[in-house]
Amino acid sequence: MDTLLVRLRDEVSRLKSGLAGREAANAARVRSSKWMAVFSSAMVPALLQTAEYARLVVSIGRDVDEDDAAKAAAVRVDAQSVLFEEGRRLAFVLTEGAVRTWPGSPSLMLAQLDRLAQVSTLPHVRLGVVPWKVEAPAFPLHGFSIFDGSVSVVESLSGDLTLTEAGEIGAHEEAFEAFAGAAVYGEELRALLDEIAADFRELAKQLDV
Prior knowledge:
Layout: H1 2-16, H2 18-31, E1 35-40, H3 51-59, H4 66-78, E2 89-95, H5 96-100, H6 106-119, E3 125-130, E4 144-147, E5 151-156, E6 159-163, H7 166-182, H8 186-208
Parallel strand pairs: 1-2, 2-3
Antiparallel strand pairs: 1-4, 4-5, 5-6
């Protein structure tokens, strides 16, 4: 019961602070962690988003205050400084579907793909994508972020679900390792991103017709 109350209080506090407050709480959790494992099946994770992509993520499909959304996106992008800090270990695994799902425009996604390619070269970051041509090890029902092996956060349309039970975290760690084993990395990853970028360039031409 105590754990449930802590979760509820945390969520209520974030809601009262608006989008920017929620992002600030997320950023604080990221900065307090030494290692993270992030799996995403539907979108590019927050720490890897361009500013334009982030702005759409926090506002698309919602009735939000524009100033609050702009501040939230800025806080989200500012938190990305952890990607360059020594002493951290950050691992990201995305499905190809997450990389190909495009809010905004094809040109936005070209910039986002370039961002992913750049991040994949950072020494403290391991970034992989599971190609659609590879058999999936499980159904990717939802994404999650594991912090220091003690907390896993599931992002939903209505807010974040914070999990702390050992069994829940263990299930997420097992799923992460399974998808990580099916992913491509390094030069193979960047070649895949180039293929996807070519598809977006072709799509942009079609939309201009």
